[in-house]
Amino acid sequence: MLGNTFGRMFRITTVGESYGIGKGSGLAVIIDGVPPGLKLSDELVQEEMDKRRPGVGKLNSPRLETDQCHIFAGMAQDGVTTGAPVGIIIYNVDTQDIHIEQYKQYKDLCRPGHATYGFFKKYGENQDWCGAGRSSGRETVGRVAGGAVAKHILEQEGIEIISYTTECMGIKAREMSYEEAKANLRKNEINCPDLEAAEKMEKRVLEIKDEGDTAGGIIELRIKGVPAGLGEPVFDKLTALLGHAMFSIGAIKGVEFGAGFKVGNMKGSENNDQFTQKDGKIRLKTNYSGGTLGGISSGEEIVMKLAIKPTPTISLKQDSVNMPKNEIEELSPITRRDPTLLGRIYSVAEAMAACVIVDSLMMARGYDNVCRVENPWREI
Ligand SMILES: Cc1cc2nc3c(=O)[nH]c(=O)nc-3n(C[C@H](O)[C@H](O)[C@H](O)COP(=O)(O)O)c2cc1C
After folding, report:
1. Distance (Å, rounded) from C-alpha 18 to C-alpha 16?
2. How far is the CA of 337 from the centre of ligand 1 (A)?
3. What's the rounded Cα separation, in Å, for the pair 45 and 354?
């Protein structure tokens, strides 16, 4: 399997599966590029891990994982990083035989909407049949741990990331300012800061859950405090790096920046963000571009919308294919799942965004240091 490392200067490498070898299995992340002298602790990383943790409510998978993380490398005795790669491990604790047996029973069948078919095509009979292996939502545990370290670095740069649900099965949250959304984060299981809309969304998801089905939705991700000038103009546009990061997360099916797909119905005069000056700084009057121009951060808030598909595992009969027999077969209701991914996936999106921004900051500062560009416009 290729592609388990993400980033250029700030790099995360993740390992581990949903079930793996059963008892004693787990997931880990190795983080390269962590600066020395950063105060880190298991508790600090755990705060982020708890946002993603399953088994904590009616909208969550009943899998009872504690997701306790342990930093096992890259730190000195006094709790600060040394500059060496940081390693964090998280053991699987709820890999019950009953569920392993269930997966075994259906191991030759492809789960519609999930990754099994691609796994059969790539890895043949060795494909990981238990809990979707590296394609499981559990794989994202390592990303969130890596993202916790990235977020901690960003905090010191005055950069902050929030993400929350804006739409679910036709129910829309009202638009709100960064501060209002931030004040209402995680006030409900679906993580929608419009508390009235949240109630309706949760009710609808529970109805769909009772039907044995799952629900999709849309989340928004906002990054505040990113300085102008991050991202490269050609292949490594900041939009391209963030898009790569988001599309690397299972179940994310669409990524928009700023006005996104609405630009198809806008005039240039409506879509162009015009310039103004505020407190001696150049600013944009509007932010339809979503925080980047030409792939380079503009200094405005980075605003993204992410389309989240309904969880593929459902409790309804579906047509599948038995790969070894090469026959169409019915797949009966299967094991544990989230009725919607909205209440958990945002933490993974925040983590990946944090990794991209730290990496881009390091690239920009490295370039600046070597090139020593004389630039009178930097400070305005
Ligand atoms: C945090 C998280 C939790 C997930 N939980 C489940 C789950 O319980 N059941 C499921 O079928 N898929 C779950 N998924 C989605 C699958 O991982 C994903 O749909 C699958 O890998 C196929 O990839 P694709 O949807 O991008 O094609 C989860 C994804 C994430 C990010």
Report:
1. 7
2. 9
3. 13
Phi/psi of residue 202, each to 5°?
-65, -40
At 96, is the pLDDT very low, low, confident or very high (cuts 50, 70, 90)? confident
- Integer Cα distance of 123 and 135 in angstroms: 13
Sign of the CA dihedral 310, 315, 319, 320? positive
Q: Does domain 5-371 have CATH number 3.60.150.10?
A: yes
Cα separation, 128 vs 208, in Å, equals: 29
Ligand 1 center–CA 230 separation, angstroms: 31
Asked which of 58-67, 225-234, 370-379 is least confident by mean pLDDT, the reply is 58-67
Q: How far apart are CA 44 and CA 190, in angstroms?
A: 23
Task: Give yes or no for a contact between 74 and 29, defined as CB atoms under 8 angstroms apart.
Answer: no
Residue pointed to by tokens 């079930």: 19
Contact 195, 187 (CB under 8 A): yes
pTM (2 decimals)? 0.96
Residue whose CA lies nearest to ligand 1 atom number 28:
137
Encoded tokens for 325 = 């027999």
Here the tokens at position 116 are 């099994």
